[in-house]
Amino acid sequence: MEVTTRALTPADIPAYRDIRLESLRLHPDCFGANYEEQRQQPTMHFERNIASQSPQHTMLGAFEGEELIGLCGVSELENRTVLLTQMYVKSRCQGAGVGVALINAARHTAAEKHQARVLQLDVYPHNLAAKHRYEKAGFQVTGQTADELIMALSLS
């Protein structure tokens, strides 16, 4: 499978919406958003960021040819830290390196576009597969909220 990654553009919004809703519908326990609530919104949060090409938020897509098969968001926090959000790869594409390609694109975007020194993410403790994938990519658990583990990767 040949995969390319790039920042999504306004033309990608319909495909983004489809894959985002798919992620929420198929994995309701892995994301901090509700499928029905998101489906009913005329415009989701990241759709607005994609449409405006927000300098603080970048939604990255993984493509097989023209098909969007995975995504992850990169959003500036403070102290040169960037948050990785909405990581999702279509089921049929899992295990083919798509997630690794997205994490690498997120690392590059965080360092180059956002001048970040740390890439951070939140993951539910019960989502062991995701936690292990992130650890394999170099993330380490650095804290915990009431519901989620906080993981970070140094970019410097």
From TrEMBL:
InterPro entries, alphabetized: Acyl_CoA_acyltransferase, Bact_Acetyltransf, GNAT_dom
Residue stretches in coiled coil: none
SUPFAM superfamilies named in the record: Acyl-CoA N-acyltransferases (Nat)
PROSITE patterns: GNAT (PS51186)
Highest taxon of the lineage: Bacteria
Pfam families reported for this sequence: Acetyltransf_1 (PF00583)
This protein's UniProt keywords: Acyltransferase, Transferase
Start and end residues of each N-acetyltransferase domain: 3-156
Record-given protein name: GNAT family N-acetyltransferase
Lineage, broadest ranks: Bacteria, Pseudomonadati, Pseudomonadota, Gammaproteobacteria, Vibrionales
